[in-house]
Amino acid sequence: MNHIRNFCIIAHIDHGKSTLADRLLEYTGAVSDREKQDQLLDNMDLERERGITIKSHAIQMNFSFEDTAFVLNLIDTPGHVDFSYEVSRSIAACEGALLVVDAAQNIQAQTISNLYLALENGLEIIPVLNKIDLPSASPQEVTDDIVDLLGCIEEDVIPASAKTGEGIGKILEAIVKRVPCPKGDKEKPLQALVFDSVYNPFRGIETYFRIINGSIKKNQKIKFVATGKSYDADEVGTLNLKQTKKPEIFAGDVGYLITGIKEAKEVKVGDTIADATDTSASAIEGFEDVKPMVFAGIYPVDTEDYEELRGAMEKLQLNDASLVFIPESSAALGFGFRCGFLGMLHMEIVQERLEREFGMTVITTVPNVSYFAYTKKTPETAMLVNNPSDLPEPSKIDRVEEPYISASIITKADFVGNVMSLCIEKRGLVKNQTYLTTTRVELVFEMPLAEIVFDFYDRLKTVSKGYASFDYSPIGMRPSKLVRVDILLNSRAVDALSALIHADNAYFVGKKMCEKLKELIPRQQFDVPIQAAIGAKIISRETIKALRKDVTAKCYGGDITRKRKLLEKQKKGKKRMRQVGNVEIPQEAFMAVLKLND
User: Domain coordinates of the chain in residue numbers?
Assistant: First the structure.
């Protein structure tokens, strides 16, 4: 155990985590020349296309230092705020972290939040100054900032370039010297922490774990403490580039386990693996359950695929523990699921993974956050509202509370005015303004979570010319003046288009939604009124004009009454069609509601 080091890489988006991981693997010979490729650990097509890390990836390397062979377990982590749950799980399986900072972009919001996460877990931090080969890099200035942030000495900061490979040897030496070896006792009964799992269609569920105490052998009878179910360990091994089978893995190491489990419900991330004969086995402190921030309905395009969609969601949940879902039904879309996500990017990724990995075509409804509603009958009891259509009638409501967040934005001093006006437009309150250096400012706002769900991040990047970085944490529920805006098509409410909006913006948003839907819904044989309503009060209306067939084409000359008779007959037919007619809503209409500011 003295020769094992478990560490992860944490940093802001695009500060070079995955590239640094590539160089470390190359330097230690964990990959052969033939297997080399950029962002080697990002093995999902989606990660490569978007150039971001979505999943944490674990891999083992061997490194010899001063004639001693060390085993290094590296876990590469995502940088996006939507995947911070992945980061927290990786941190729980490590003793040390490489904190990577871009020498051109300096310390950003996500750098600080991931750093605090690592410090809370008592990890040893090794600061790495990356991208020193860039012409725009200012190594000395950034080094001073890192020293201020961590309270370390200048010699502790390792200058490196993941692109050219400079400083990689020093980083590996620092890991061996500064990261503590795992604590634990291999003589004690088995205790292992599950930090990830993947569904493999050929081998069942693969469980990734970190052994805290004891050891795990091939064919040993093991049990999961949370579910209490026992299995045989058909195969155990370590996570090299390819999985490597081992007869036994000991305390302190990271490995994988295959037991032939087929049911997704039976493996829970954060669970403890113990020996099946150990009756006194206790669970290790796992991770707290994740709290979703954004909710949306996911429905199959064809209602018959409902069960298939359930299976796909369960398999996806194995690999992405921050996805939460419960069944629900909608009058407009049939049966589906109400899903909780950590943010809009997370929602997009889940939708794309369902389409690519499981071949499911789905419709996603308008995302929203969860609210607390208090009725006049029971003003003390909070009613959780995840779906706007569950909100009681306006006359019965006493008050509505919505979740607030504390947002930290780091930007260049030139853009402070733009950022402030954007946040105030989104109902934000300025709480603090700190100059980190003469050119960089940290702004702290308190604002409603609902306002940042849709386009806030994109607009923040636009007003700050790409310089601002953003991070947030929830601070609880606060009373707000919210109303439900319903959309009526042909006098029927479409529950999937309802939205909870602040009373001051309700008229503007209702009008915009009607205009947007008028462009997107195809014309019918009859007039289709689109109305926005609050309760029984209509606040806006647009009409999609009917397609008209020229029924008078065959009349020429003669009496005008013949033409009138034909037009009257057409009018009656249209009226009847309108009573029975259904209006199909295209998928673009659901998504367009989000992009009202475009």
Answer: 4-178, 191-275, 294-364, 371-480, 483-595
